[in-house]
Amino acid sequence: MKIPVLWRWGLFGLLVVSILLTVFLVIFLRESPDLIIVNTPVGSIQGMRATNGDYNIFLGIPYAKVNESNPFGASTPYPKFDNVFVANDDTKICPQQESDGPSGVIDCLHLSISVPDSAASSPLPVMVWIHGGAFESGNSHVYGTKYLVRHDVIIVSVNYRLGPYGFMCLDIPEVPGNQGLKDQVLALRWVRDNIEAFGGDVNKINIFGLSAGGHSIDFHILSDTEILFNSAIIQSGSSLASTVFTNHRKTAPIDIAAQLGYSTSSIYEAILYLSSVDPKLVITASRTLNYSYKPCTEIKFDGVESFLTRHWINADTPKVKGMPILIGYTEQELLMRYVNPNAFTNFNAIRNRLSETFNFDEVEIAERVETIRNFYFGDNTNITYDQMWEAVHFDSDYTYIYPTRRSINKYVASSAESIFFYVFAYNGSRNYQKFSNNESIGSACHGDDLGYLFDLKLFVEKPTPEDQLMLDRMTTLWTIFAKYSNPTPEVSSLLPVQWPSLTAESYNYMTLSEDMKVGQRPIHERMTFWDTFYKQNRKFEKGFYENE
User: Where is each Carboxylesterase type B domain found (predicted)?
Assistant: First the structure.
C-alpha cells in the first residue's frame, strides 16, 4: 500500500503545513484590500476599508478600562493586546438616556480612527473629535468622517463616560469628580502614543468639539494635566457657559440606591451596591430624581490624579500661550427653545439663568432681572410670544455667546498664538437642529453646523448645491486650520476672503453664511451690556473667590 507523503512526514509535515498556513493568513490579512493591520505600541490592530471613500477605518479601539467594582471612579489605560485586536465595531456607547429609553454599557471607553490613503506617503495632521450632549448623552459613532478625511487629515472620535458614571463629584478619593474628562485625557494620551503608527503627525494634533465637546476643550485648557494637543477648535463651547453649572449632590449614590430599593447611609456601601446594578437602572433612577452631572472643582488627594482643582471662574489659561485657536458660535444658539409659544407661559427664563451662575438673594436677583428685562424687552412687563426674538437673543447671549466672548478674552490675555473667531449664520437643509425639529425660521441655532462637517445618518438626501458649498467650505476651513494653524493661509475660489485673526483691539470675526464676511465686534451693544453686568456682579458669581 502506498503511504501518503504527508502521513510519511508525520508531525514534521503537519508542522510545516501549519507554518505555511499561518504565513499565508498573515500575508492575506496584510495584503487584503478590505483588511488592514497596523502594528502599534499597544499591539496589532486590524481595521477595514471604508465603503464610501479612499480611507481605512479602525472602529471601537479600547483606550481605557473602567473598574467594574467602582465604575464611578477613575479609569486606567487599557492593557496591551495579546492578539490582533479586530477594530470593526463602534456601536458600544456609554450609559445614558436616549429617546427610546436608557442604554449603554460600562465597557465603552473606545475610540475610532479614520485614515485617508494619503497617510501612507507622509504623516498627516490628526483631528480628535469630542462629542457633545450636555455631559449626559452622546457617542462617537454617529459622526461619519467621509467629508473630513478627504482633506488629508486623520480623524479620531472618542467615547467618554457621561452622567453619574462620568461626572459624579463626591469629594472622596474613590469618586473625586470629572471622570469623563479624565477619560478624555487617557484618550488623548493614547493618540499621542499610538497615532504615529497610523500615519499621524504627533506634532499636529488638533482637538475639536461642539457644545459639551467644546466645553470639554476649554476645561482641558484650564486643567492640571499636561498639554496633549497643538491647536483647538471650539464650537459653541466654554467652561463659563451657564449649562455647565449645577448643584453637585454629595449624597447622589445614596439617593439613587434608595430609588432602587437599597437603603444605606454610607456613600461607600451605596457605591458598592450601584456597581453591581445594571447601568440602565442607575440611569433611570438618576433621571427620576432629576439629578444633573457636570464638571466640578476637585479636592486634591494623595495618589489620585486630579483634573481641575481650582474653580474655572478664577482659573487662568497659560496653556494657550503659543496655541492657535478657532472658536465661535451660531447666530441664534437657543432659537429652538422659543419657537413654541408654550415657552412663554409664566416666562421666568431670566431669573432661572441668573440662578444657575450667580449667588443672589431675593432682592438682588429681582433687581438684576429688571435690569436685563429692560435692556432686552423694554417696557414689556408681560413677555409673550410676540417677543420671541428678544427672548432668543437674551438666552443665546447669556448661555453661549457671552461665555464664549469671556473665554476668548482669557485666551487673548494668555497670549494665544492666534485666535480665529466666527459666527455661523447659514440656514440650509443640513442645519442639524432645525432639520430635527422640522423648523426653518431664523438663522442657525445650536448644533446646526454639525451637518456641514459630518456625514450624519439623519440626512439621506444629496446636499443641495448651496449646502454642498457650505459643506466644502466648512470642512476645508477646519482641516486647513488643523494643518497650518490658519484657516485661510491663501485665498481661493472656495475661500475668497482672508480670515484675519482676532486681537483685543480689532476683535475681528468671520461670518460663515452664504458668503464669507469679515467684521469687527459682533452684536457690540449686547456684549457691552454683559461686560458691564459681569463687572458689577463679579463677586456674586458661583465659584468666585476674592483672593484669586
Answer: 37-530
Q: Specify whether 129 is located in the same domain as 158.
A: yes
Structural domain span for residue 118: 35-242+297-315
Contacts of 351 (CB under 8 A, 6+ apart): 365, 369
Same domain, 131 and 215: yes
Given 112, 137, 140, 211, the catalytic residue:
211
* Confidence at 547, pLDDT banded by 50, 70, 90: low
Residues 6+ apart with CB under 8 A from 516: 473, 495, 496, 497, 499, 510
| 26: in domain | yes
CA 442-444-445 angle, 5° bins: 100
Q: Are 75 and 182 in contact (CB under 8 A)?
A: yes
On whether residue 474 sits in a domain, the answer given is: no
Percent of the chain with pLDDT over 70: 93
CA distance 158 to 103: 18
Q: CA nearest 203: which of 214, 192, 211?
A: 192
How far is the CA of 229 from the CAs of 204, 207, 379, in angstroms? 8, 6, 49
The Cα–Cα gap between 533 and 367 comes to 12
> Quick check: is 211 catalytic?
yes
Look at residues 178, 179, 131 and name the one whose alpha carbon lies nearest to residue 155.
131
Alpha carbon distance 512, 491 (integer Å): 15
Q: Three cell numbers at 383?
A: 413677555
Domain check: are 164 and 151 in the same one? Answer: yes
What is the end-to-end Cα distance of the chain in Å, rounded? Answer: 95
- Are residues 41 and 16 part of one domain? no
| Domain limit, last residue, from 250, 284, 315 | 315
Position 379 scores a pLDDT of 87
Residues 27 and 129 in one domain: no
Cα separation, 205 vs 228, whole angstroms: 8
Helix (H, G, I), strand (E, B) or coil at 280: helix
In the listed set 315, 349, 365, which residue is the last one of a domain according to the structure? 315
Other beta carbons less than 10 A from residue 278's beta carbon: 13
| 3-state secondary structure (DSSP) of residue 54 | coil
Q: Do residue 63 and residue 132 come from a single domain? A: yes
Same domain? 126 vs 208:
yes
Give 360: exposed, middle or buried? Use CB within 10 Å, 0-12, 13-18, 19+: middle
Residue type, 461: E
Please tell me the pTM assigned to this model: 0.92
Q: Both 187 and 231 in a single domain?
A: yes
Q: How far apart are CA 63 and CA 66, in angstroms?
A: 10
Record the cell numbers describing residue 19, joined without a space. 507554518
Domain with residue 83: its CATH number is 3.40.50.1820
* Closest by CA position to 402, among listed 354, 439, 452, 453: 354
